[in-house]
Design brief:
Elements lengths: L4 E4 L7 E5 L14 H5 L11 H13 L5 E5 L9 H10 L3 E6 L7 H10 L3 E5 L4 H8 L4 H15 L3 E6 L8 H11 L3 E5 L19 H17 L3 E5 L14 E2 L13 H7 L17 H6 L17 H16 L22 H7 L28 E4 L3 H4 L1
Parallel strand pairs: 2-3, 3-4, 4-5, 5-6, 6-7, 7-8, 8-9
Antiparallel strand pairs: 1-10
Helix pairs in contact: 2-3, 3-4, 4-6, 7-8
Length: 398
């Protein structure tokens, strides 16, 4: 591993927060979580917030929640007019900034240079296909060529980057090529994300963009094998664990595993920054809340007494939050086959919208050698994965 990074199998809770600047974007991705808000200028989430408000959100993430890194996203953060100033503010307060971006605007080398000078830590670049397939998926002719030019610019400026890829139907033919791209261009991490209908997509997706998990499994396994063979960290988000080949179980992250990925979001601060007042231009920020207070508002755990139990551990609070996100917010379901699965207690199951399209009969009970009862620790599988840790995090993460 090149200078600036280490490898580890230790799993600790992430200290990364997230801030949404507003749903203003230069693309119109067909499967965007926020497609209505991006397309509707009158939506209260659409306009970018002021620099002062964005700074205040980031300062709360650092000062109140103890976050040490932050994902800044939009919409598209590279077109936020004061993005360099916000990046510099994050650095000044000890919050290491990442931009979640399509990178199209970074085909301008001067933008890359200014971001680096401001203190940008790295980028998480969304690559949802290649060539004409990408252009069609994001609604902009020439977008793929601009994105590839941006990767050239990042290499020239020595700006680290990771890649995100949504497992939509249109992307599957390019999955192997995207894995090769990640290796050839020097990405630090490759993430594959199931096309789950969060936010504006909830209840609205169709089979046009959603393959059956059984059809995703083969191309995904081939891509993961290529990344593994080349020493690149790969993660799969929000797929049932039975979709994984046994050799790839360590790479699969459901809601219970996410808090142990340093590049994912801390549930405590996310429960605050993800609420409307913290992601809109208009209105005042809400007072910060604890994770226990956020859990109290759920239908699942708000009235069963656990929140008044002083013996409830922080680990349990995070696990409760994971269950709320999966079952209450997204309607994940289990199939009859799940009852006999050794992984049922650390797996989300099948997303509610997916089940409404295809059911859950693809589920299959999984066995683990030497284990006769369901696994109870969400880290049981992922602790075998070798993950990268930036040197700036090494004092607490290694």
């Amino acid at each position: 591993m090149s200078a600036g990074f280490s490898k580890t199998t230790r799993r600790v809770r992430t200290r990364r927060g997230v801030v949404w600047l507003g749903q203003t974007c230069n693309l119109r991705c067909r499967f965007c979580y926020f497609q209505t808000r991006v397309a509707t200028r009158e939506h209260p989430d659409h306009p970018f917030m002021s620099l002062d408000k964005a700074r205040a959100v980031c300062s709360t993430l650092r000062g109140r929640y103890g976050n040490t890194a932050v994902d800044i996203q939009g919409g598209e953060p590279t077109i936020y007019p004061q993005i360099e100033a916000l990046v510099a503010h994050c650095r000044e307060i000890g919050l290491l900034p990442t931009l979640i971006t399509n990178a199209v605007a970074l085909d301008d080398p001067q933008r890359c240079r200014r971001l680096k000078q401001a203190g940008l830590r790295d980028l998480l670049v969304s690559v949802h296909g290649l060539g004409a397939a990408y252009d069609e998926a994001v609604g902009l002719p020439g977008a793929h060529a601009r994105q590839m030019k941006a990767l050239d610019n990042l290499a020239a400026e020595a700006i680290p980057f990771r890649l995100n890829c949504v497992l939509a139907s249109s992307v599957l033919p390019d999955l192997a090529a995207i894995a090769r791209l990640a290796v050839e261009r020097g990405a630090r991490v490759m993430n594959f994300i199931a096309f789950n209908p969060f936010e504006d997509q909830q209840g609205a997706r169709s089979g046009q963009d959603v393959h059956r998990y059984s059809e995703v499994a083969g191309p995904l396994a081939d891509a993961l094998d290529h990344l593994e063979a080349n020493g690149l960290e790969a993660n799969v988000r929000y797929l049932p664990l039975c979709v994984a080949q046994p050799r790839h179980r360590k790479n699969f992250y459901n809601f219970q595993q996410l808090p142990y990925d340093l590049h994912e979001w801390d549930y405590a601060s996310w429960s605050w920054s993800g609420r409307n007042p913290q992601r809109r231009r208009d209105g005042e920020l809400e007072p910060p809340i604890t994770l226990r207070e956020a859990n109290r508002r759920s239908k699942m755990f708000g009235h069963d007494g656990y929140l008044e139990d002083a013996s409830v551990s922080v680990e349990d609070e995070y696990r409760h939050s994971a269950l709320i996100r999966a079952r209450e917010h997204c309607g994940y379901r289990f199939a009859p086959a799940c009852a006999a699965c050794a992984l049922k207690d650390i797996c989300d199951g099948f997303h509610g919208d997916y089940s409404s399209l295809y059911g859950a009969d693809e589920a299959s009970a999984q066995d683990l050698p030497g284990i006769s009862c369901p696994v109870g620790d969400p880290r049981h599988l992922i602790r075998e994965q070798v993950k990268i840790v930036e040197d700036e995090d090494a004092s607490w993460a290694l």
